[in-house]
Amino acid sequence: VREQLYDVQEVATTYGAFAVLRRDGSVVTWGLPEIGGDCTSCKPELKNIRAIRASRGAFAAIREDGAVVTWGDPFRGADISRVQARLTGVREVRAAARSFAALREDGTVVTWGDAKHGGNSADVQHRLEQVLDITASAGAFAARRHDGTVVTWGEAKFSGDSSAVQARLLQVRKIYATPHAFTAIKEDGTVVTWGEPEYGGDCTSVQDQLKDVCEVCATAGAFAGLRADGTVVTWGNSSYGGDSAAVQELLVQVQTLTASARAIAARRADGRVVTWGCAESGGDSREVQDELLQVEEVFAN
């Protein structure tokens, strides 16, 4: 497919295949056929595509007309036969590991894929109205509604059950996720977390510091909150960046946070970069610290 890889606008990946969206709205795929590497069965429908989303084993393409086209493993989101008639006017699609959730223009939500991992929202469907955006963990979804409340569904171990904090999930501004936990920033700058405690679902140890939070960064097992004064608060698994104690005194005048799977990099106003977390994942930048000057942006894989 190399000769077809030009005018590339977007790249999406499952656990063994790639899908490329070109500027003309066409799609090119390669990799393991059974998890999305072969789209020949739906090729005629893959026209005027505006976005592609990926679970671990399937792709979902959103067309300009609001329809959705899927391919790959039927058990990980490629089978939309149950909800095909409702997949119209789709604005956005979010992917968990084995399921998808589509947000329609009218604020309603359509889900499909592995029922236990967020693919079945029947229990909360009556509340999935006036939804503004959806955030996905590995096996659950959290929908933020127009009134600032939050609706969750999916596997409890992937944070699909927010009942313990539901009363506090009001005036929510944005939701972030690790594979096993969610964090919500409220309009007043405070934070609410739920899910697996060891992977970011419990912030009680730093709750009193979580004020005036304007942004949150998530690794695969921890969160970092950037406060309005440029300081940073971390929680979750220390092996995933949940403990910034070793560099805390350097975390001042921070402007942006960037995460890899197990480490976090903070870019300061003076152009310096501070890192922490798993050394093998980018948490130890001592060898290049002298080169990390006047940095404008940080990227991670």
Automatic annotation (TrEMBL):
InterPro entries: Ran_GTPase-activating, RCC1/BLIP-II
Gene3D superfamilies xrefs: Regulator of chromosome condensation 1/beta-lactamase-inhibitor protein II
Protein name, entry field: E3 ubiquitin-protein ligase HERC2
